[in-house]
Amino acid sequence: MHDALVAFAVAVTSATPTPTSTVDPDLVTPGPWGFAAIVFIAVAVILLVWDMMRRIRRGRVRADIDEQLDAEAAAQADAAESATETDDEDIDPDARR
Is the CB of residue 89 less than 8 Å from the CB of residue 95? Predict the structure, then answer.
């Protein structure tokens, strides 16, 4: 058993081969086509974000305007309702004619 462990230890500790590079570094780089593709994607993303922000801003402005119009309509309805509730006889007794 001892001889087997010594043989295993010698085999494990023997010189390990160093890896050699067999791949050409020029073949694994993206090159000009990869650069162009990344630039295209970046420009497309920037344009999409710009358009999205414009649409969100437009929606917020429209919501604010709708809210203001609803408030004005409610105020006009309240004013019209309070005007019809006023007793004209108290203001002008001759209004019956």
Answer: yes
